[in-house]
UniProtKB/TrEMBL annotation:
Keyword NADP: no
Pfam families in the cross-refs: gag_pre-integrs, rve, RVT_2, SH3_retrovirus
PANTHER family (UniProt xref): RETROTRANSPOSON, UNCLASSIFIED-LIKE PROTEIN (PTHR42648:SF18), TRANSPOSASE, PUTATIVE-RELATED (PTHR42648)
Taxonomy, superkingdom: Eukaryota
PROSITE patterns membership: INTEGRASE
Cross-referenced Gene3D superfamilies: Ribonuclease H-like superfamily/Ribonuclease H
GO biological process: DNA integration
Keyword annotations from UniProtKB, A to Z: Hydrolase, Metal-binding
GO MF term (any one): hydrolase activity
Organism: Trifolium pratense
Integrase catalytic domain ranges (all copies): 74-250
Taxon lineage: Eukaryota, Viridiplantae, Streptophyta, Embryophyta, Tracheophyta
Name of this protein: Retrotransposon-related protein
Length: 778
């Protein structure tokens, strides 16, 4: 005890010591050791003693956070629909399939399907771009609602931009159509359309492979596949086909023939001579959408033939040949329609009882094969179709915009007293007429107007017998570019006029009529009366001089006029005078001329073909290609190789033709296009690769063009350069000439062309090139 009466306690620091341990081998720990194996699997290993060293594990109900991060998956989609429509158009499924490679001959890369949930009947439409989906839906809606006599109640689609646009959504709201959109990344919720697309493509692949049909005919194949599927059994509709569930009538199928089979078409006596063959070989492309008949293609005569067929197909014949008869009148131009589904009329009566329809001519179809090609080569066809405009009167009359365009054309014909009723002279053949339809676009790619023209079928005439002269009042691009350079250097504005129905103004004084020449004579007489002077070297260029150095320049390209000058009053008087003399469309300042975009600014005038170049890349599936810095590999030498297998010459020619039109504003492409154009007769893969390289270069230079500057330092001095190689063509050792002329700071004329003769030296090649350049300069 201490002095303060407190006890003293002696204490020491105890060092911690482990007297006993417990091994933590929990289920969660072994879950991690087993690479996050599911708990059920761990328990199975433990209970059945499938391994040694694994302790007894307890059940764990908590989810592993790491497994949720690494193994999360969506819930499964029910295989059976929870609800089915009980009436037609109560629910419509839709989807777009594509892009499909290769694109069709008409430039289409997508097809759009609509499937009625109640009947499971499908309608199909072929599209160039997804943006056309809205217009397609409106056409489909009008068609089916008229047939079914009830309205579409609900539309189920995915969340593609073509379905969720403001215009599409507003239209559905206005029409009282309920929308069902799938969840993001869940195509299974639109399983009817998705499965339909898969089935259609399976059928198309089989049909194309069976008959070796070129893949570019896929629109025809997919439409026939849809036609067949609508008449095939399905588990979704009990004991009937979708066509019967929709129409209430059992469809006829005895007219079915194999897609792509060879057909023999009878040639009427009036269309052949005594020793000519009485039939020709064609290829079956299905049934016509407009006529109750077959649709066949004749690759030699470049014709689509709509004909009724007799049912004498021989099943034992490996070629499944069909005997068919066509009418005598081969009248209407026609291309394969890629925008409609099977016709209602086609299912209501058998083809064997149908009225014969006229065969129809197809000027846009081309083939590189001769008439002597064998049966197998008949399948290697190619088609060119540049737009989706109506191809017949029956198709156009269904749309109000085309009916209005035809009314305007008929009014112009009436106002100009174009024709009169008369007696056909003895020994003369009458020439039929047909409608031509064209959608006009502005520089932004937007629809400007719908144009319809009633034209004579000039292709029924023979040169040297029915006519002798061919004429078209068109300005050369050299002239147009020179006017642009001249106007830009002086700071003038260029304006544009369009003459409505120009050919109707021609005054005919002959028995053999040539409409373009008659129109030119009419407009030339007008310019003479207005004291214009015609350029002696360019007959489409007219100049008018006023007082005090006033000048007005006009260039004519058929019915399109561009004009410029240094006096606004003089230009206004000219425009007023033209409007009094002719029915005109005032297009204002020149912005879009013959596919060329024109930008007039204070710095000068810039011309480009960016819109057209973009369309070319999309047409040939090159819009997403990798860019290159030059149109051709330096030092590249292309040659003809007869040992290498040839490619599709028709597609190759299409590519070259599109690139050649780009030369209106792209002198940098002149040599490369000139080089690849030499092999259009029999291109090989090497040549196609060279063309695709040009397009890859084009992809990176879409905005390139020519700038004509205001008050250019070079002024209006015309400068030219020329050059040539020597024996650059390895096939015939001919040289290539190249020249370019500059005016107002921009190129106005250029050329790259193989020389017509074989020169003996570099000096001689240079002399030939200089001579060509001098002739152009003069």
């Amino acid at each position: 005890m201490s002095s303060n009466i407190m006890y003293m306690i002696s204490a020491t620091i105890i060092i911690p010591r482990c007297l006993m341990t417990a091994k933590q081998e929990s289920t969660v720990l072994w879950h991690g050791r087993y690479g996050h194996l599911h708990f059920k699997g761990l328990n199975t290993l433990s209970k059945k003693q499938m391994v040694r060293g694994l302790p007894d594990l307890e059940e764990v109900e908590d989810n592993c956070v790491d497994c949720l991060a690494g193994k999360q998956s969506r819930d499964s989609i029910p295989k059976q629909a929870n609800w089915r429509a009980s009436a037609k158009l109560e629910l419509v499924h839709s989807d777009i399939c594509g892009p499909i490679t290769p694109q069709s001959n008409g430039g289409s890369r997508y097809f759009m399907t609509f499937t009625d949930d109640f009947s499971r009947k499908t309608w199909i439409y072929v599209l160039k771009e997804k943006s056309l989906a809205f217009e397609c839906f409106k056409f489909f809606k009008a068609l089916v609602e008229k047939k079914a006599k009830c309205a579409i109640q609900c539309l189920r689609t995915d969340r593609g931009g073509e379905y969720t646009s403001n215009a599409f959504s507003d239209f559905c709201s206005k029409e009282g159509i309920k929308r069902q959109l799938t969840a993001a990344y869940t195509p299974q919720q639109n399983e009817v359309s998705e499965r339909k697309n898969r089935t259609l493509l399976n059928i198309v692949r089989s049909m194309i492979h069976a008959r070796n049909v070129p893949k570019r005919f896929w629109p025809e194949a997919v439409k026939w596949a849809t036609y067949v599927m609508n008449r095939s059994p399905t588990l979704s509709v009990k004991d009937m086909t979708p066509e019967e569930a929709w129409s209430g009538k059992k469809p006829f199928v005895h007219h079915f023939k194999t897609f792509g089979c060879v057909a023999h078409v009878h040639i009427h006596d009036s269309q052949r001579r005594k020793l000519d063959d009485k039939s020709k070989k064609c290829v079956l492309l299905g049934v016509s959408e407009e006529f109750k008949a077959y649709k066949l293609f004749d690759p030699v005569e470049k014709r689509i033939i709509i004909t009724n067929g007799s049912n004498d197909e021989n099943p034992a014949d490996a070629e499944e040949q069909i005997t068919a008869t066509n009418n005598t009148n081969a009248n209407e131009n026609m291309v394969i329609n890629e925008t409609s589904s099977d016709s209602e009329d086609e299912r209501n009566s058998p083809l064997g009882t149908r009225i014969r329809k006229p065969s129809v001519r197809l000027n846009d179809y081309v083939t590189g094969q001769a008439a002597e090609e064998d049966d197998e080569e008949l399948h290697n066809l190619a088609v060119i179709n540049t737009n989706n405009d109506p191809i017949s009167y029956n198709e156009a009359v269904k749309h109000a915009v085309w009916r209005q365009a035809m009314d305007i054309e008929m009014e112009s014909i009436k106002n100009n007293d174009t024709w009169e009723l008369t007696t056909l002279p003895a020994g003369c053949n009458s020439i039929g007429v047909k409608w031509i339809y064209k959608t006009k676009y502005n520089e932004k790619g937007e629809i400007d107007k719908y144009k319809a023209r009633l034209v004579a079928k000039g292709y029924t005439q023979k040169h040297g017998i029915d006519y002798h002269e061919v004429f078209a009042p068109v300005a050369r691009w050299d002239n147009i570019r020179s006017i642009l350079a001249f106007a830009a250097n002086n700071g003038w504005k260029i304006y544009q006029l369009d003459v409505k129905s120009a050919f109707l103004y021609g005054e005919l004084t002959e028995n053999i009529y040539q409409a373009p020449r008659a129109w030119y004579s009419k407009i030339e007489s007008y310019f003479n009366a207005e004291k214009f002077e015609k350029c002696p070297y360019e007959h489409t260029l007219f100049v008018k001089y006023g007082m005090k150095n006033e000048i007005l320049v006009v260039s004519l390209y058929v019915d399109d006029l561009i004009y410029t000058g240094n006096n606004q009053r003089l230009m206004d008087e000219f425009k007023s005078s033209m409007k009094k003399k002719f029915a005109m469309t005032d297009l204002g300042k020149m912005r879009f001329f013959l596919g060329v975009e024109v930008d007039q600014s204070s710095n000068g005038i810039f011309i480009t073909q960016q819109k057209y170049a973009t369309e070319v890349l999309a047409r040939f599936g090159m819009e997403h290609c990798n860019q290159v810095s030059s149109p051709i590999v330096p030092g590249c030498k292309l040659v003809r190789d007869e040992t290498e297998q040839g490619t599709d010459a028709t597609v190759y020619k299409q590519m070259i033709g599109c690139l050649m039109y780009l030369l209106a504003t792209r002198p940098d492409l002149a040599y490369s296009v000139c080089l690849v154009a030499r092999f259009m007769e029999r291109p090989t893969e090497m040549h196609v690769t060279a063309v695709k390289r040009i397009m890859r270069y084009l992809k990176g230079t879409l905005g390139f063009g020519i700038m004509y500057k205001f008050n250019s330092k070079s002024g209006m001095c015309l400068k030219g350069w020329c050059d040539s190689d020597y024996a650059g063509d390895l096939d015939d050792r001919k040289s290539t000439t190249g020249f370019v002329f500059m005016l107002g700071g921009g190129a106005v004329s250029w050329s790259s062309k193989k020389q017509p003769i074989v020169t003996l030296s570099t000096t001689e090649a240079e002399y030939v090139s200089a001579a060509a350049c001098a002739c152009q300069g003069i």
